[in-house]
Amino acid sequence: MTTDSDTPWLTNQEQRAWRTHLDVSRLLMHQLERDLQPFGLTNNDYEILVNLSEADDHRLRMSDLAASTLQSKSRLSHQITRMENAGLVRRESCESDRRGLYAVLTEEGWETMRRVAPHHVASVRRHFIDLFTSESLDSLHASLAPVAEHLRQHRGNP
Fold first, then answer.
1. Structure confidence at residue 14 as a pLDDT band (50, 70, 90)
2. pLDDT at residue 110 above 90?
C-alpha cells in the first residue's frame, strides 16, 4: 500500500468508531431485510411504500421518489416495474409535464403497508431502538445529525 504523507490516517479510536458504524449499518439492514422477507418485500420496496404512503394523494413524481430513495432513475424504474407487477404501485402520467410520471400507491399497496408497518416497527425496536436508553438515543441523534446534514448538502458532489 502506498501512502500519501498528507493523508491524516484514522487513529485507533476513529478506526474503531468507523468500523463499528459499518458493522451496525450492514448488520441492521441485513436483519431488517430478513424480517421483511415473509411479506415478500425488500428494504427498497418498503422504503418506496413508506414514501408513497406519506405523500399527498399517495403519489410522487418518479424523479422525486428517485431522489428521496437515493436510487438512479433507471434503477427506480425497474423497482417500480416489479412493484407494479405485484400490484403495490402503478404509474400515472403527469398532466403538467407529458414526459413526467408519477408512482402511485395502489389500494393493495396501502393495505400491504398497513399490514407490514407494525412488524417492521417491531423489528426496528427489537434490533435497534430498545438497545438504547432514552439518553443514549438523544446522544446518538445529536452525534449523527451533523453527519446526515453534511451528506445531504454534498449529495451528488464529489
1. very high
2. yes
- Answer for the pair 58, 66: CB distance below 8 angstroms, yes or no: no
Cα–Cα distance between 131 and 140 in angstroms, integer?
Answer: 12
Closest CA to 90 of 116, 112, 108: 108
- DSSP letters for 102-116: EEEE-HHHHHHHHHH
1 pLDDT exceeds 90?
no
Give 40: exposed, middle or buried? Use CB within 10 Å, 0-12, 13-18, 19+: exposed
Q: What angle (nearest 5°) sits at the alpha carbon of residue 77, between those of residues 75 and 82?
A: 100
Contacts of 21-30 with C-beta under 8 Å, sequence gap 24+, read 28/127, 28/128
Distance (Å, rounded) from C-alpha 92 to C-alpha 94? 6
User: Which residues share a beta bridge with 90?
Assistant: 104
Grid coordinates belonging to 39 = 411479506
3-state secondary structure of 158: coil
